[in-house]
Amino acid sequence: MITYDRLFIGGSWVESGDPELLDITSPHDRSVIGRAAQAQPADVDRALAAARASFEAGGWRTTPPAQRIAVLRRFNALREREAEKIAHLISLENGSAGWFTRAGQPGLTRQADAYLKAAEEFGWEEALVPSDPASPVRSVVRREAIGVVAAVIPWNSPFSSATTKIIPALLAGNSVVLKVSPENSLSMGFLAELLERVGLPEGVISVLPADRETSEYLVSHREVDKIAFTGSTRAGRRIASIAGERLKRVSLELGGKSAAIVLPDADIEKAVAGLKFGSLLNNGESCIAQTRILAPRGRYEEVVAAVKELVESLKVGDPGDPDTFIGPMIRPDQQERVRGYIRLGIEEGARLVTGGPQIPEGLEKGNYVTPTVFADVDNSMRIAQEEIFGPVLVVIAYDDEDDAVRIANDSEYGLSGGVWSADEDRALAVARRVRTGTVTVNGAPIAFDGPFGGFKASGIGREYGAVGLGAYTEYKTITV
Questions:
Q1: Closest to 40 (Cα-Cα) out of 208, 270, 189
Q2: Distance between CA atoms of 253 and 227, rounded to whole angstroms?
Q3: Does 67 have pLDDT greater than 90?
Q4: Residues 329-361: pLDDT tens digits?
Q5: What is the pTM of this model?
Q6: Active-site residues: which are they?
Q7: Closest CA to 354 of 322, 313, 390, 318
């Protein structure tokens, strides 16, 4: 049993305003695996007061960038040393299969390294070349911290979502209140322990597990200068309205319904092997999952058969079992939500290729769903338009490249996607036409030094690398 009976506020562990601890349950069998304090509005007030005081005092924001980089480099090294424990905690509380949580650890290092490299090369203060060389006026452009950042993250990939925000925010000199999901109280409690050990000044960082009501209290608070949010599009719209009303800076990384375009010349075996990870990572509970598989009519049944074979080959079960590829959904309500979409797909007239709404045999005590594939799907169906957030794939036929691009773009979302082809130039040409923030070719990994974010209802702003670092700064021009 893991217990966090205090909250990490401003660098210290303090008692919560609510002494009652929340039971953290296992998605695998719904047993209690831990207990943790949850933040209340009064705790948010304390965290923001500490953040504001630290920012106004200037101890962190006026620290030279090289020293801030050194502190975050220590944090990254410390996290690397604890990678196995982090992976275990996330599997335990999220139900994410062990292969996924372990494979994600090197990605956290690459993500952090990209931010650190960007900070080393960042134009913190640059002299402008005057347009008129004879002018006696010269200008200096500075990039300064915004102030107090409220970073709000979802439950599905807690460490990645947290470090995506707190590393650039801290590198830029901001003070941060990180609001995490109650389900992640254990892994995020451990994150707070790591942050406590790296030598940040008092008040600069707080980590608060809290419910949605407390989260809204946080983002609405007058002491917050910027909101950085990852989560559902519905919640993002609400946060954007709050930010707009109060003129807070805001960045939003929201939902997705990404398409994988399998071109006629693609090696189907290789494409489907890649989609094992591109479409079903993290039990399908991933905003970048390519859950719409677009196949040419001439090879449609070949693709459907290959996807069916793949999905039926994957072991579903205990996330602690090294042979498990797909674990349980995080909560019972998420389990029922995904099963409801499977029933809806059947009602909409899609062909059930494999899977279904039944709970896998022998796994009735947990939040499990049966991985499911639908064929003969029209892109207007709800199972093709709405983010299901579970291991449910739809295979959609297209006539030619123009039709494939049209279908891929026929979505309110625009976060990610993929193209598969034996001809790299052809794949690139198609990728350029897909209106999403990220497109991978032949299963290439996402580049952490390039900007990440979405078109349309998939968000506002970008994360990762220099662009992501810049999102936590304000421009100041000084003219002499």
A1: 208
A2: 11
A3: yes
A4: 999 999 999 999 999 999 999 999 999 999 999
A5: 0.96
A6: 253
A7: 313
